[in-house]
């Protein structure tokens, strides 16, 4: 029996209520029209793929049927391939020429009917998340041509529109005008032919505009001045004044609309996903989940999802530098050290304490990064590819960097350094023992990855400090035990003046200011922009206080303890606000600006729109909260007077 290919399709409806800024897509007599067969109102997404090498060359089919590499251009259908899944093998169908990739690097019109067929191929995942297109001679070994090796697979979402009688919109080949025609039928399934699939490119600023590109690589335009009043694919985007006629409004029930996200939502049976650690793997560690002065929290176990932490500890991102010998994980891969009762001493801290500090500091940094890297993967649908501003090497963590009332991230040194300082009675405080301080410095390094020009003064530098403190907050509030403890201790009152969540650096703050746990800085504050000092740490309180206000109000909005526990609500709200802040950072301008606070607050509104589409809920009330507090805090003038 000839195996039947699968054509998985994405269940997304795209609505096109308007053809451009002011013209309805619903077309009445006398205006533009598709044809008499009714207009399509919604489309479905189908996926094609491009195979690209490290020099951005894509596998293409030439007019003469040969297979070559050409500079990647996702609007060129000769570079786009449908992957037909035949169970244990595949066939790659070219969009432009309607032919299969033959293993002898020639076009082949025939569908494969067995795995030895000229059109039958295998997709092999290599180590570096690249793929090779191969074939087999003996069912044991896979071979592939040189140009088909080590390719990155990119999903290209394409849209087909059907009318009520099931016909697909297609381009009339000569004029580029639109019509309806039958699709391609396989058994009981009908799929669009290549020429019935359109490239749908969302506008990059997350707005509701997109452009549509046809098989002939031209844009769909609707030209009201055209005497025929017809829509056509005739525009090559050489004259920007015609741009309004190719911008389409659309609506979609998921977000983001980018190819990356679609790729992440698509079933890709040919491709093994990034490995999820199996249950029972990962690394357990012991850390101070606040700092030694916060006795209700103390030392707790923390589960890191990472399976690649080696003796040191060291992993692909981080290494530790201390007087302790490398610390090996136990037989279960865990680092469960005890912190003995002997008093701390400095500069020659005991080996037991040093080893504990090394594991605690490394683990806190690792956890912070896991959280934020996970956010990027959630937003993009792929593990992020990041450039390390400190160079292509591990960030070094120094838990005991010497004596100073300080801790810092240094891009130039490629390091996170934590010092000790002495109380009045001479006993040392090690800053690395504060989860707040460690997460804060880790936050600086992470923000330096996302926005390398933001190490600055003024509001941009102030935001760097605020982000560090917000990292501490979000790290704490992401841990279910800490979130639950917080809800229990404060009876779900985020404004409780003595709460450990808004206080940053309690032990250090108490030593400096004798303020009994209020912290070095407190996010639960009422500092407004016109009163803020320009020094970055002082200034940061305006933004961190603003975002803490947002957390308080959004939590109050979302609270409904009768149907969902407060701890769960707090965890969920915090996750959404953390991701919104990441979106706002990424869409903000790269340069250091005087009014970065307000820019970020404005971009938070965009971020909520993004998340609301993604989560399928209306977050417009959250936007109101942001507006209200941005105004009340005087974000736009903070530190400028
Ligand atoms: Zn800082």
Provide a brief overview of the structure.
With 641 residues, the chain is an alpha+beta fold. Helix content is 27%, strand content 21%.
Notes on the structure:
The chain is of the alpha+beta class and about 650 residues long. It is built from 10 helices and 31 strands. A 6-stranded antiparallel beta sheet has the order 1-2-12-17-18-21, with helices on one face. Strands 24-25-27-26 form a 4-stranded mixed beta sheet, with helices on one face. A hairpin with a 5-residue loop joins β9 and β10. The longest helix has 30 residues. The N and C termini lie far apart (about 80 Å).
- Known CATH architecture of the largest domain: Trefoil
User: What is the strand content?
Assistant: 15-25%
Radius of gyration over C-alpha positions, nearest whole angstrom? 29 Å
Widest β-sheet, arrangement of strands: 1-2-12-17-18-21
How would the global form be characterised?
Answer: globular
Structural class: alpha+beta
CATH class of the largest domain: Mainly Beta
Classify the fold: give the CATH topology of the largest domain.
Answer: Trefoil (Acidic Fibroblast Growth Factor, subunit A)
Number of domains: 3
Bound small molecules, deduplicated: zinc ion
Number of E strands: 31
Q: Low-confidence runs (pLDDT<50, min 5 residues)? A: 1-37, 253-274
Report the mean per-residue pLDDT as an integer: 83
Number of DSSP helical runs: 10
